[in-house]
Every structure is written in C-alpha cells, then in structure tokens.
C-alpha cells in the first residue's frame, strides 16, 4: 500500500489527503471551522482533479461536533466529487453527531455512508464493480 | 447498598446553617441542653423503658421486633440516641448520626406514623420529668431548647424517608427506561429492537440514542425495529421512525422496520406519511431475512 501527500506540498487545510491506489482517504481529526472547511473542500477537489481518483473516503471518527455548515460542506463535497466522476463515502460518524444532525432536520440525503474505513472501501469496491 | 443520605439531601455546612437558623437552634440552646446531661443520664433508662412500653404495647409496632434480644439491642441504641440529644452539638457529625437513625427505620419498613407517635411520647416523658426536677422557669427554658432539637431531628428523619423513596422511584425509572429499549443482537452485525408500548417524544429520543450507540458499538450493519407491539402508529411515531432511520443511515447502517400490520399500512398511506425511504416488512421473519442479506448471509433449506 503506498500513500502520498497531495501533490504540490502542504494542503491549505492542514488535513492530509492520502492516496491509496485509486482511492483518496482523508481523516479529519481537527475541528472544521468555517474557513478550514472551505479550504478542506478546495484541497479535496484539487487533489481529485490532479489524481483522477475514482473514490473518496472521508473519515470523521475524530469529529465530536458537526454543525449544519460543516454538514453541508461535507454533503456538497460529495456532490461535487460525483460531478468529477468520484464516488464519496462518509465514514465513522459518531452517534451523538448523527443524533444532533437529525434533530436539526439535516439527514445528509444523497451522501453514501459506512461504519468505518474498511466498510467504506468495500462499498466503493462494489460501486465501481 | 447503603444510601449516602448526606449527599442525597445535599447536607453540607451551608444547608446545616440554613436548617439551624430556621429551627432557631442557637448556641445558647445547645449549651442549655448540654447542662442537662446529668438529668438525661438519671432518667435515660426509665424514659426508654416507658417508650418501649408504648411501642411493644401495639401489635403492629411490636411486629418490627423479632425477639427479646432485638428489643434489648434497639433499647440500648435508643438510649444512645436519647443521650445524643444532650450532647450539645449540632454539627455535620450530629446530622450524620441522626440520618443513620432515620435510614435504619426506613430500611426495616417502619412507617413515619410509628416514629412520630413514639417521638410524641418521648416529648411528654421529658416534659413531665423536667418539671419535676427543675423550677418551672428553668424547666420551660430547657424544654423550649430541647423541642427545637427534636423538631430538627424529626425533619431529618422525614427527609430520609422521602429521599429513600425518591431514590427507589429513580432506580425503578432507570430500570423501566432500560427495559423499554432492549437491543438484541440477533446475528453478527445485525441488531433487533422490539418496540412495545407507546412511543412518545421522550422515548423516541432515547430509542434513537440507544440505537445509535449500539450500532457503533457493535459495528452493526442492519438494525431491525419491530413495531408490532406499538399500539398506535400515527404521524408523530412515523416521524420519529424516519428520524431514527436517517441518523442510523448517517452512521453507515440500514434500518429495517418490521411488524407493519395492514392497519398501520393503511393509516400511513391515508395520513400521507412517506415511508418509502425506509425498508419495511410486515413480518419480523422477513426483516431478519433481509437483514441477513445485508451482511451477506442467506437462510437456506437444509439439503
């Protein structure tokens, strides 16, 4: 398994995007403030453009809190990636995060989800045949 | 398990000071009762004996005492309690001691009526003896001071009774809450939650939280919620189910709702509730089969 940081050096959001074969893997471990969230989205899309990755896994196990803005950024990123031909799977959402989002009336419709990175890779594999 | 009444009743220095102020127990009162120590030692045994004549004279209150040995034991405890009144202390240690008395009464199921009735006799016995031993003015002052302490003690005993009962109620409520969301692992990565009884907003929230926690804990892929035991499934219940399903989906698992009767199906459609985003089945058996398919298993006929 080879992994390399985004071509072009340090990502603006300081969140490393790992490339594993045809798939990009990002593990968010810092809180996504509005500015960071925007830079994060930008980083991901640029990396997709550069690498032509077919799958994207966003692991948010480390996020204790996801507000509606961050939820929208995550969902939008998935939609944007799809336009570029990349399937996105959001993995590792914490129970309390899911409960809060649903209470706010935010169901993340249209976003593929999986319990963990392993499941996410499996799902991408099925999607891409 | 011993209940910590001190913390249950939030009895700290502040609370103690507030109680003492309200019961008007001054240092003067404490000094006055402390001076009665000889008096207490002189009459202690007789007063306790008299008290137990009352308690043992009634079949219902006597029932709390199994035999002579026990009577002797509680009598000596009673004497300690009685002498404690004249210690001239009203600090947290005194409170702790008094709470222990209340707690032991509560534990053996001795109701407040016996406690209060016996305490009444106590006061009358004290009153008579004070006026026999001392000049009227002195006896009156002593009785006034004592009655304050007695009221203080009584309040603590009643608080213990109430706190013990509230504690029991709270524990029962916790047990009921736990019983109301029994999440069962029917197969590796397949969970089942059979819902029985009314689903209100409070319970729905708790169901969602439990289900989400268990989903992550067990890394479950399929969660079956059987609603056959829910008497009324209306728009509100449906809304809760939709929300739970959406939350579970965000974790990366699927919810399957089973136990949808003809009646419920009819109601849902007539109410215009859209459940098409959820996998639903009439029978639990079908739900289990579907759930197993989600984890790559099939139920097959044995060849």
Using brief descriptors, characterize the structure shown:
A: 129 residues; alpha/beta; Transcription Regulator spoIIAA; five-stranded mixed β-sheet; 5 strands; B: 303 residues; 2 domains; 13 helices
Please state how the strands of the largest beta sheet of chain A are arranged side by side. 1-2-3-4-5
What is the second-level CATH architecture of chain A? Answer: 2-Layer Sandwich
Residues in β-strands, percent of chain A: 15-25%
Report the count of strand segments of chain A.
5
**Element order, helices and strands of chain B?**
HHHHHHHHHEEHEHEHEH
Total number of domains of chain B = 2
CATH topology of chain A: Transcription Regulator spoIIAA
Fold and architecture overview:
The complex is a heterodimer of chains A (129) and B (303). Chain A has 129 residues and is of the alpha/beta class. In chain A, 42% of the residues lie in helices and 17% in strands. In chain A, helix 1 packs parallel to helix 2. The two termini of chain A are 21 Å apart. Chain B starts with a helix and ends in a 9-residue tail after the last helix. Chain B has 13 helices and five strands. Chain B has 303 residues and is of the alpha/beta class. Chain B has two domains: 5-174, Globins (Globin-like); 184-294, Transcription Regulator spoIIAA, CATH 3.30.750. The mean pLDDT of chain B is 88. A five-stranded mixed beta sheet of chain B has the order 1-2-3-4-5, with helices on both faces. The chains are: A alpha/beta (129), B alpha/beta (303). The A-B interface holds A 90-99, 101-103, 107-109, 111, 113-116, 119-120 and B 208-209, 212-213, 215-216, 219-221, 243-244, 246-253.
């Amino acid at each position: 398994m080879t992994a390399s940081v985004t071509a072009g050096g340090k990502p603006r959001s300081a969140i490393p995007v790992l490339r594993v074969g045809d798939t990009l893997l990002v593990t968010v471990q810092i809180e996504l403030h509005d500015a960071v969230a925007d830079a994060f989205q930008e980083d991901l899309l640029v990396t997709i453009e550069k690498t032509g990755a077919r799958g994207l896994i966003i692991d948010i196990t480390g996020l204790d809190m996801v507000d509606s803005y961050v939820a929208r950024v995550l969902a939008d990123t998935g939609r944007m990636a799809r336009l570029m031909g990349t399937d996105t799977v959001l993995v590792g959402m914490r129970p309390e995060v899911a409960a809060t989002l649903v209470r706010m009336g935010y169901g993340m419709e249209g976003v593929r989800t999986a319990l963990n990175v392993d499941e996410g890779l499996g799902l991408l594999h099925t999607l891409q045949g | 398990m011993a209940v910590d009444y001190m913390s249950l009743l939030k009895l700290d220095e502040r609370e103690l000071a507030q109680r003492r102020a309200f019961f008007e127990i001054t240092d003067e009162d404490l000094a006055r009762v402390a001076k009665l120590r000889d008096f207490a030692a002189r009459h202690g045994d007789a007063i306790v004996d008299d008290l137990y004549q009352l308690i043992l004279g009634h079949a219902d209150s006597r029932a709390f005492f199994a035999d002579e040995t026990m009577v002797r034991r509680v009598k000596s405890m009673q004497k300690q309690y009685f002498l404690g009144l004249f210690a001239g202390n009203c600090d947290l240690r005194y409170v702790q001691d008094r709470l222990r008395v209340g707690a032991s009464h509560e534990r053996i199921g001795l109701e407040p009526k016996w406690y209060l009735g016996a305490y009444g006799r106590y006061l009358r016995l004290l009153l008579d003896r004070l006026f026999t031993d001392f000049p009227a003015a002195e006896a009156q002052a002593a009785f006034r001071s004592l009655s304050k302490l007695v009221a203080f003690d009584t309040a603590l005993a009643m608080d213990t009774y109430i706190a013990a009962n509230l504690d029991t109620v709270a524990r029962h409520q916790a047990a009921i809450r736990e019983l109301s969301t029994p999440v069962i692992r029917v197969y590796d990565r397949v969970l089942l939650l059979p819902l029985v009884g009314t689903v209100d907003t409070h319970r729905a929230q708790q169901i969602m939280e439990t289900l989400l926690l268990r989903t992550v804990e067990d890394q479950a892929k399929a969660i079956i919620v059987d609603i056959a035991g829910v008497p009324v499934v209306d728009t509100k219940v449906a809304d809760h189910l939709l929300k739970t399903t959406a939350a579970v989906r965000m974790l990366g698992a699927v919810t399957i709702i089973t136990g949808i009767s003809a009646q419920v199906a009819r109601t849902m459609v007539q109410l215009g509730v859209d459940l098409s985003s959820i996998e639903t089945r009439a029978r639990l058996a079908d739900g289990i089969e579907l759930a197993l398919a989600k984890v790559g298993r099939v139920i097959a006929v044995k060849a």
